[in-house]
Structure formats: C-alpha cells, structure tokens
Amino acid sequence: MKKHCISYCLSMLLGTAAFAQNFGVDYFLTEQFDKAKEIFLSKLDENPAESSYYLGEIAYSTGDTAQARAYYERGLAANPEYPFNKIGLAKFLLNADQKAGAKALTDIAKEKANKKNVEVLVAIAKVYYSAGLTALYEKALGVAEKASKSSPLVPMLRGDVLKDKEDLGGAAGEYEQAINLNDSYLVPYIKAAQIYADINPSFAIEKLTTVMEIDSTYPLTDRYLARAFYNVGHYARAIAIHEKSFNINVSSVGELTDYAAALFFSQRYDEAAALIDKGLQKDSRSFVLNRLRMYSALETQDYASGLTIAEQFFALPLENNKYIPRDFTTYGDILSFNKALDRALEQYAKGIEASSEKLELYKKIGEQLSKAGYPGNGAEYYNLYIEAMDGEADTKDYYTMGTYLYKAATAIVRDTTVDSLYAAGKMNEYLIKADTTFGIITERMPDNTLGFLYRARVNASLDPETTKGLAKPHYEALLALILEKEEPEKIYRRELLEIYQYLSYYYYLLFDTNGKDEDKAQVIAYSNKILEINPNNAIAKQLIEALTATTDEGKKKK
Predict the structure, then answer these.
(1) Rounded distance, CA 315 to CA 351, Å?
(2) Are 519 and 507 in contact (CB under 8 A)?
(3) What angle, rounded to 10 degrees, do the helices at 118-130 and 98-110 form?
(4) pLDDT surpassing 60 at residue 183
(5) What proportion of the chain, given as a percentage, has pLDDT over 90?
(6) Which has the minimum average pLDDT: 195-209, 219-233, 334-348, 413-427?
(7) What DSSP character marks residue 183?
C-alpha cells in the first residue's frame, strides 16, 4: 500500500448513531473505495461538503489530483465552516510550498473549533505523513493524542502507517489498541480482520464474529469473513456468505476474486470460470483473475482457449505480483494437451525450479504428461520422484511408473511417423525398464497378481513372435498365484483367459517346430481350459480341431 492510498474518515464524532450508520465513511476507511464512492455520489446533493471531501480523497488516492481539487473546492463553497475540504486543499499548497502549506495546516488546527477536534488533528497528521514529512507527522499526531487520549483514531492512524511500512504485526497491535479504546467502534475490527484474514484467519473469524454480535447487519463484515473462511479451507461457508451479499453490479473486483477463488477450490470450475469472465470485463489486467481463469480452463478441459488464456496471463506485467510454481505447471499442462511438448517441458522445468516441494511436483507432472498422451515423458518424471524418495517410494508408485513405461512402449509401435529402427530400440528400452519396475513389485508384494501380470505382458512384448517364451515363467507364476485364491475362475476370469491363451499358443508353436506329443497335449489342455471359461472361443476350438485332426490322420497312416 502506497502512502498516497492511505485514507481516513475523520469528520464525524465517534460513538454517535450517525457515525455508526455512515457506511460510506467505513468503506472509505477500510479502502473499499468503489463502494464508498457510490455512497458519497448518492449523497452529494444532500450533504455536499462531507461528500465532496470524501470524493476528493478517493480521487486523490487514485492519482486524479485535478478531480480531487475540484471536489474540495466544491465542498468548501458548500460549507466554508467544514474544515476537511480546507485540509484537502492544503495538500496542494504543501506540495508546492512546504512552509506555506504547513502554515495553512497549522492555522486550521489552531481554529477554536478545531483545537480539541481529534478528527481534524488526525487528518492533518495524515497529510504530513503522505507528504513524507515524518517530523511534522509525529508532532501533529502528538497534538491529536493530547486532544483526546481516548480516541481510537490515533492508534488507528499509527496502525495504517505501520501497515504502509509492511509491519503487519505492529499494525494489528495498533488496531487492537483502537478497539480497546472504543470497543463499539467497528472500523478497527475490520482493519484488523483485513490483516488477520490472510495471516491468521481463525483470529479474523473471531474478530468478525464479535462485530456480528455488536451489529449483525453491519455490511462490511461479510467480505472479510468470507475470505477468512476461504483461507481456513471452509469454502462452502465462504460461498454461502458471497451468495448472500454478492452483487455483480456493485461488488468490487476484489470481492468477485474472493468469490471466484472459493468456487474454484470447491471444484465448481464452470461457475468459477463464468464469474471470472465477468470480473475480467471489469479489470482485464487483474493478475489473480487471469491466473484463476487459466486454472479453470485446465480443469474444465478447455485446452484450446486455455492456451490463449495462459499466454495472456504470462504477458501481464508482474508489477508487485510474482509467479508461483502452479502457474508454470498449469501452463505446461495446457501446452501438453495442445501437443506442444517441448514448450510444456520448458514450463515444467520453471515450475520445478521455483518450487520447494519438488517431490510431489515430479509426481504430478509425470501423471499429467501420461494423461496428455506422453507416457514415456511421464515415466521419466515419475522416476525422478522415485529416485528422490531414496527407497521410500510406495509400491503403487512403482506400479504407476511401470504402466507408463508399458504404455509408452506400446504407443511407439503404433506411431508410423517414427523411424522403425529408432522405434524398435526405444520400445525395448521402455520394456526393459518396465520389466525391472514390475520386478520390484513382485519382490515387494509376492501375493499380488498385478506385478506378475504386467511382467508377463512386458515380456510378451519383448518376444512378439513368442519364439523365446520370455513371458512363460511369469504367466506360470501368475497362474499358480491365482489358483491359490478363492473362486479364481470368477474373480480372475480375464487373467486366466490371457494366461491360457498365451500358453496354448506358446506350446502350439513348440509343437509346430518339434512335433512332440507332450507339447500337443499342453495345447489341447490349455485350449480346453479356455473353453471352460469361454465356450465360444473360436481360436481354442480351432486349435483343438487342428490338433485332433492331426492325431486322427496319424492313426489312419498307421
């Protein structure tokens, strides 16, 4: 928060009913300028001096000094006795001529009606601080404190100054002091909650609950209560508050952002995206909204639009923002689904470099690449994860990496754009790694069928002609394990069919080569087992018929 953005409402006496109900002032004090401006514009004819002052302050805080001066002058003309527009105009004199400006402010402070008016004196102190005149600020604030030691406005100004200097703990302490001085004045509660909502949301909830106990209709409570609930992960409660109070026509971009974030992290992605699009119509350069829109595009599988959205997000000037690892990995995910692998890998590398949680990022990227159709690259990242676990990786992680390697091997065979020699070499590389990986699973979990099943499949792929019988010992080990289970034909029907089909074919090829009766008997035996499970299996029937015919023909010759 810059010094020129510090704004304070000081024109009304504390503790009065009028002060408590002037929500425009409270919105102004808590820097919700859009809502404050709307209220004061509606009251400009009814109360031109006060409304002009706050509209001038809002304009000044946003850098529109010409409009600010015009409002101060309008307010002064409406009521020359109202001191705050004089203070507003004195800022211009102070900037042009420090001595003359300081004298003008001193004269205002010495007026009989203002000598004990802490609101006026604090407003003057604020002007000095905004101008960078620290000594004059401290002196003016001391005068204000002497005028009323019980006013919460002095510690509240100190808190705002500390917040401006990014001393959030000190600022929160001063807001607490303001509350202690007048516990029915609600603005310091909101100011404290603005800080606590992000750094200690549970405490913010406590503060805002107190506000609701004092005044259940106080309109400033909802936004920060919703943010605090969001920050502790109570998204449903945050959404419920937004649903009650949110109005797209008058709610600020900040409120809209909070609402959209709660929807997003509640996995209500379509609703979040629709709301974010409305927010971007109000502020197309909002860093957080553009970030959330990119995230939503990925989650809703809107990959084509997501690429444009991601490029727009990364084209925004950083200013006071910074990228987080998820920004890069989300961009990488979108690129991977758009088949821009090289660019995706660049973004993943940036995400890993920026992350302090590299382990889980390796794993996540591996999963995403496989999902996007790059299981080989996914396996590489998964392997980085397993290596970084240094022997502590879970067995299911080995299973995942093994399946990625197996998928990569089978995919490369189908890719007609790849050189055949390269494809054969790469496929074997994937399969050998997969075999080693599934071997770890069979060692760790000798009673689990998956490791044996995939070792058999991998070795069958390494021996596509089935001439070496590489898969045979693994299918046999799997068969022995399955037959020990309860109701194997019912629970492992598909696995048994796969085993019997492989073994029947293996022995058929063996018989075709050497003509041994024991091999033929194995073919018939395994084919019959296939028919026990699937009586309509045409291949098993053909094998039995062919071998039986061979036997009958041999008998006739004898």
Answers:
(1) 17
(2) yes
(3) 170
(4) yes
(5) 88
(6) 413-427
(7) T
